[in-house]
Amino acid sequence: MKIYTGGGDRGKTGLFSGERVAKSHLQVEAYGDVDELNSTIGSLAAVLPTKGADIGEQLRLIQSDLLHIGAWLATTPTAQPTALLEEFAADRVGFLENTIDRMEENLHPLSGFILPGGHVSSAAAHVSRTVCRRAERRVVALMEQLGSEQLPESWQQVLRYLNRLSDYLFVLARYCNHLTGVDEPLWKS
Amino acid sequence: MKQQIYTCELQQSTRLSAGTFELALSRPRDFTFQPGQRIRLLDRYRERDYSLVNAPADSSLRLCIRRVPAGSFTASLHAAATGSRFQFSGPHGYFVFRSTSRPAVFVATGTGIAPFASMARAKTRGFTLLHGVKSPDDLYYADLFHATAGTYVPCISGKASTAARWFHGRVTGYVEKELPPGTYDFYLCGRTEMIRDVTWLIDEHFPDSNVYSEIFF
Fold it and tell me: How confident is the model at residue B217, as a pLDDT?
């Protein structure tokens, strides 16, 4: 089955809400960053330590959430097709917070800055974290452009989710070093 | 999320043209869909998506199927006897009609007409429909669209066509040369090449229009 039409060969693409926009459009940049984030999380899942089976399941749920987020970002908020989208609910942020809290119970309190790295899974989690922060910045810029006070509640939850996901990935990076017995690289200023 | 699997029975198989037929399947009681959506027929090894051509309120599910040369899946569907049981999942897809102030232009090639038949049967009206086929014999559902479309334009690309009531050429030719300037909601369903070419024409000639597309095989 062909997955391509070539309709985008001249630099435009179609939003889920039907508009044809330049591929440099801020909305495309935003869901593109979320797509990139999803891919890095796939890479992270592929190098998890064997003790991290439950983390693998968490990451699959997060990847599904990110696809859901991509659909919202690809739909102009005032357009009718938003009615076709499933609400992005606040409980997804709660899921992240619960998993953060559970991992942190196993970690020493931070006494200074750490350098991204250590076990390969920890390094991968840091890459995902920084891509997540970029996606968040792009979504903020998009929301400012669209007029955030008029956006559906799901957009607010998307923003909260991306903010919390960065925190999750930071803690996960530390947790991966903990699981594998690798010392956290510390910043020696 | 796990997809629900439904079971249905073949009630009737009807010839539409030399290479196309319609299947009527019993409708599971709890199955609902929106006009323009697909179901996925499943067998042990394969799965194929087909848009429903009936309205959501109809008692049977109907599929418009083109026999694919050397295609064993469509061959088995074509040969299926009344009472044969099938499994399917669905509904799938978001190719549904979205009513706006912009006029709607439906563009189909071949069996890509299927979702538009469902929309028309579900009381969508006032649309312009371009149906591209090689031969007038492939203008299935013509009566339906004569009765429901604001403008119905069969586009006949084969040499056999000489009747004045059809556009002689491909749907792309009509979009480029005949469709009045304006801002539209375009719905494209058909082969990849058509979707690509019409999308480019829209970008060039109908800026600020919306485009929804569904690749059909």
Answer: 63
- How many domains does one find in chain B? 2
Predicted confidence (pLDDT) per residue in B146-161, tens digit: 999 999 999 999 876 5
The boundaries of the domain holding residue B63 are 5-92
Indicate yes or no: CB of B196 within 8 angstroms of CB of A5: yes
Of B92, B125, B146, the one marking the end of a domain is B92
CATH of the domain at B81: 2.40.30.10
Number of H helices, E strands in chain B: 5, 12
Cα distance from B66 to chain A (closest Cα, Å)? 16
pLDDT tens column, B72-119:
889 999 999 999 999 999 999 999 999 999 999 999 999 999 999 999
Class in CATH terms, A20-105+113-180: mainly alpha
Q: In what order do the strands lie in the sheet with B104-109?
A: B167-168, B151-156, B128-133, B104-109, B185-190, B210-215
Identify all chain A residues contacting B210, using CB atoms and an 8 Å cutoff.
17-20
